[in-house]
Design a protein that fits this description.
Number of helices: 11
Number of domains: 1
CATH topology: MetI-like fold
Largest sheet: none
CATH class: Mainly Alpha
Distance between the termini: 25 Å
Structural class: mainly alpha
Shape: globular
Helix content: over 70%
Strand content: under 5%
CATH superfamily: MetI-like
Number of strands: 0
Oligomer: single chain
Length: 251
């Protein structure tokens, strides 16, 4: 039976073949051939804007992600641990998650102007509610009986945190961070497209205004590959490391 890497590679080949087949049927202005997109991408490297756009967008993604997770952890911990606070304000998280993303972006730009502060704030506010849900569930998943038992045996607080509380909440926190990062870079691209004059989103919007599909795809391709690389190389390895105790318990 083929391994997971072989199956993923096969799925990529099938997708690329499907792309090439569609490009031969429809107009190149709608779906340009894969070879043409790669050629345009290589040419754009010579133009010099690809890496600068990626660096600018990546910086915004990092700051917006850190801000959104800080908001989610602070509010989620409070809603999950303080009973009256949770009963009073938990429905506001649902409302915040239901607000259209574009409304956050438009309001942020109107209040703060077309600048990076508004772009980062809007991105963080879009991502924070969904991450907050995961944090709340993680806090509520804590078994108080285990904590009480550890204290009864005079286990140090540091050991309780690392050996009792963290293993119970870590899966939820990791899920919040993983989905939050994936959502953040998508929102940042959209925010740049709407109101910034730099970054990958701006470049996509610029070539869209020229009706140049090849350049649109070539502009998005490198950042998509970088985010895919982060998922496969960094996040999945981090997941294996953080949850290695599951394999140890299964032995």
């Amino acid at each position: 039976m083929a391994g997971p890497i072989a199956l993923r590679a096969l799925s990529v080949v099938i997708l690329l073949l499907l792309w090439e087949a569609v490009s031969r049927v429809v107009s190149a202005d709608i779906v340009p051939s894969l070879w043409r997109v790669v050629t345009v991408f290589v040419a754009s490297l010579d133009d010099g804007y690809v890496w600068s756009d990626m660096a600018i967008t990546a910086g915004r993604v990092v700051v917006a992600f850190a801000l959104s997770m800080s908001i989610a952890l602070t509010i989620g911990m409070a809603l999950g641990t303080v009973g009256w606070f949770g009963r009073m304000f938990d429905f506001w998280v649902t409302i915040a998650a239901a607000v259209p993303s574009i409304l956050y972006i438009v309001v942020a730009y109107l209040w703060m102007g077309l600048n990076d502060v508004a772009a980062i704030a809007a991105s963080a506010l879009v991502v924070a509610p969904s991450a907050t849900f995961n944090v709340i569930q993680g806090v509520k998943a804590i078994d108080p009986g285990l904590s009480e038992m550890a204290r009864a045996f005079r286990v140090p607080n540091r050991a309780i945190l690392l050996r009792v509380l963290l293993p119970q909440t870590l899966p939820y926190l990791f899920a919040a961070a993983r989905t939050g990062l994936a959502l953040t870079w998508k929102i940042v691209i959209f925010v740049e497209l709407m109101g910034r004059s730099s970054g990958v989103g701006y470049r996509i919007q610029y070539f869209y205004s020229l009706f140049n599909m090849e350049r649109v795809l070539a502009s998005a391709l490198p950042f998509m590959l970088v985010m895919l690389l982060i998922e496969l190389v960094v996040i999945r390895r981090l997941e294996v490391f953080l949850f290695r105790w599951r394999r140890e318990e299964a032995r």
